[in-house]
Amino acid sequence: MDSYKMQAFDFKMSDLDACLRKLTPLEEYLKDAPPVSQNNYHGKNNKDSYLEFMEAYYQNETNPDHIKFARTVFEIQSNTEHYLSTNIDTDLSMNQQTRFISSPAHMHTFIELIYVYDGEFKHYIGASRDEVIMKKGEICILNSNVLHEIAPPGLHDIIINFIMPQDFFDTTFLKLISTNDVITEFLIHSLFEEKASSEYLLFPSSQNEKVTKIMELILSENYNGDSYSHVVIKSYFGALFTELLRVYRNNFGTNYPKEVIDKTVRTILEYIKKNLKSASLSEVARQFHFNPNYLGRMIKQKTNQNFSDILQTERLNKACILLERSELPVKFISEEIGYQTPNQFFKLFREKFDCTPQEYRKKSQPAPKL
Description:
Blueprint: H1 3-10, H2 16-21, H3 25-32, H4 41-45, H5 50-60, H6 64-78, E1 85-89, E2 92-96, E3 103-106, E4 111-118, E5 120-125, E6 130-135, E7 139-142, E8 148-150, E9 158-164, H7 171-176, H8 182-191, E10 200-203, H9 209-224, H10 229-252, H11 258-274, H12 281-287, H13 292-303, H14 307-325, H15 330-336, H16 342-353, H17 357-364
Antiparallel strand pairs: 1-2, 2-9, 3-8, 4-7, 4-9, 5-6, 5-8, 7-10
Helix pairs in contact: 8-11, 9-10, 14-17
C-alpha cells in the first residue's frame, strides 16, 4: 500500500488541516497539465456515478487530445483510494472537490451541501447560470435536479461536498431544526421537496465561529471515524442546520427574501382551499409548525387580509360551486365547507351575495328550453 493510501489509516484529528491541503495524485497531475476544454456532456446525461460519468464522456467527446487527457484522469482517479471521499453511511457521504479542474454543468438526484473550508471559488447555478462566488466559511445547499457548474479551484481553495438523499431529512431529523419561522418552512417546504427546480440557499456564514467549529468537528469525526462516527456526525448536522437558521435570520433580520415568505404563504393558501371543513388558524399553524399569532401576522402582511376573511371567502366560493353544480342539500353543503350550523352559513351567504343559498341555486340554473 502506498504512503498516500496509508494516511487514511493513520489520520489523527490534529492532522485535519494538513489532510485537506495535501494534493491527491490526480491533483498532482492536474497542477502541471495544460488546460483542457470540457464539454457539457454531464449536464445532458445527468449521471450520478463516476463510471456513468466516464462512459458518457467517451460517448460524447471526439477530440483525440481531450480523450487522451480524460483517460489519464480517469485512470489515476480509479486507481486511487481517495481518503477525502467517503461514505459516512447510506444517508450521507462526502468528498473534497478536485482542484485545478472544473466540474462541468451537471445536476444530481440528491441534495448537496457545499462548504468552503478555505479560499474561494466561482459557482454557476441554475439554467440562468447565476454566478455565485463562495468564500471561506460559507455554505450553499443545492436542491436535487439543480443545474450547476464549478470553476477550477486553485491550490488553496478547499471545498467540501456533502451528498444527502432526500429521505435523509426524515421526520426525526426535521424535528431537530423545527422552529416557528418562515426560514425553517422555506427549508422544509421549498428546498427539500421532491421536484425539479433551480433552488438553492447561500448562507453568509464566513464570520460565524460556531459554523466553522461544527464543520471542523464533522470533518474530524469523519476522518478519525470509529464505529459510532456516523451517529455523532448526524447529531452535528442537526446542530449545523440550527446554526445556519440563525445565520440566515440574523443576516436578513425581519426582512426575509420575498420568495421565502411568498412560497410559504402560497403553500398555506393551497392547504386552506383543500381543507375547508377543518381549517382554522390554530389547526393550520399546527400543521405548518407555526405559532398561530405569528402565522396570522405573516398572512396579513402578504395578502392584506385576515386569516378569517380568507377562510370565509374560500368557503363561500366553494359553496357557490356546489350550489351551481350539484343537487346536494344546503344543510350538507354548509357542513361540508366547515360551518357548524346552517344559520351561520345562511347569514354569511346573504351578507355576501344578497340572496339565500336556495335563491342563488335557482338563479344559477340554466333557463328551461322552450
